[in-house]
Amino acid sequence: MGFDVERVRAAYPALAEGFVHFDGAAGTLVARGVADAIATTLTTAVGNRTTVFEAGRRSNVIVAAARDAVADLVNGDPAGVVFGPSATALTYLVARTLSTQWERGDEVVVSRLDHDANVRPWVQAAERRGATVRWAEFDPATGELPVEQYRSLVTDRTKIVAVTAASNAIGTRPDVAAIADVAHAVEALVYVDGVHSTAHVPTDIEELRADFYVTSAYKWSGPHLAACVAKPQVWERMRPDKLMPSPDTVPDRFEFGTLSFELLAGVTAAVDHLAGLAPGIAQTRRDKVVASLTEAHAYASQIFEKLVSGLERIEGVTVLPAPPGRCPTVSFRVDREAPATTATALGDQGICVYSGDYYAYEYFQSTGLRDSGGGVRASVYHYNTAAEVDRLLQAVAERAHS
After folding, report:
1. How confident is the model at residue 178, as a pLDDT?
2. Where would I find the Aminotransferase class V domain in this sequence (predicted)?
3. Which pLDDT value is given to residue 172?
4. Distance of alpha carbon 243 from alpha carbon 246, whole angstroms
5. 8-state DSSP, 377
């Protein structure tokens, strides 16, 4: 039957405003079911977590349902799902906690392809503990992150290897499983930033061989809330700073203060929305998520190829290189103007794109483009259409030829 994009678009009320959204890499629109779930939670008697009265029992149900939903999304264990306000905050939490066990001369490996949220927390933790930071470099000609370099970067002193599942700047999807195999051979942990990839391709943290996997719901049609997923026994070995009366059990001891029950309800609704993108015969929610994201990615990839090939044909536009199989995200520059000027001009026409370094700090520093404004980023999501791609290409061509 094919991917029914019009049916999918009908689930996003904000699309009625008429803007063209190629800004999904920075945050997607919220699905109607997500907004409804949040509103219902806010207008229903939901108390703080307890078992002694019904309103408090409801919050327990909400929390458990959200853990189940995220586990279904990434093929994790609900008992290993830790929620936090953002992927950045969660990564800092894990880095601070793990680094208490590091000694001077230990090593961490980070990548210049990563969002800074999966770089700076590890670099700063290493500096505090006297550990050494080792850098994995991407290939500037191809945008790839070669696995071979990890065989020399990772040593028996390596404590953590931090790597992205997909670049938020150019979409590159490194071979995380192969990198993890190198790390695990010396008993190093692997922390995977899945913020960009989760929205686009089915995620299986077992196949990725990730010890930690962090994702943000607002990148996949949900609210501004994040989750870090690990096996419960991995969390059990970690002791974060916490209040004395707060729970000491896993995963609760890593969640500070009262959780946002309304946003957790929105997380569950967002996973249910993703599971229903491509109705089929799959039975479990996990199977539905995999089937739906597979079909949605195939659809998005088709119109993304139209976008990239169209940009490459426009004289006066430079497309930053990335390998085949990437997530549907591209960075480019109109040669005659600063990226911010291009993005502003497109925004004035109702076309939403971002400019700058998008927190891919090391990538743009390495390419030498950061000081001149970085790039312009267009990210295709499953509610985009071929007609919207045409509109973007025409607007970019006008900028390049004016």
Report:
1. 98
2. 21-392
3. 98
4. 5
5. E
161 phi, psi to nearest 5 deg: -120, 120
The predicted pLDDT at position 1 comes to 56
**What's phi and psi for 42, nearest 5 deg?**
-75, -20
Pair 23, 354: CB distance under 8 Å: yes
Reduce the DSSP state of residue 165 to 3 states and report it: coil
- Cα–Cα distance between 106 and 171 in angstroms, integer? 31
Taking the C-alpha atoms of residue 167 and residue 136, their distance in angstroms, rounded to an integer, is: 14
The pTM assigned to this predicted structure is: 0.98
Q: Do 137 and 149 form a contact (C-beta atoms < 8 A)?
A: yes
Contacts of 373 (CB under 8 A, 6+ apart): 333, 338, 339, 340, 355, 356
Two structure tokens written together for 136: 């994995």
Measured on CA atoms in the order 277, 282, 283, 289, is the torsion positive or negative?
negative
At 236 the pLDDT is 98
Residue 174 to residue 156: CA distance in whole angstroms: 23
Residues 6+ apart with CB under 8 A from 320: 143, 169, 170, 330, 331, 332, 333, 367, 375
Domains defined for the chain, CATH in brackets: 5-31+285-401 (3.90.1150.10), 34-274 (3.40.640.10)
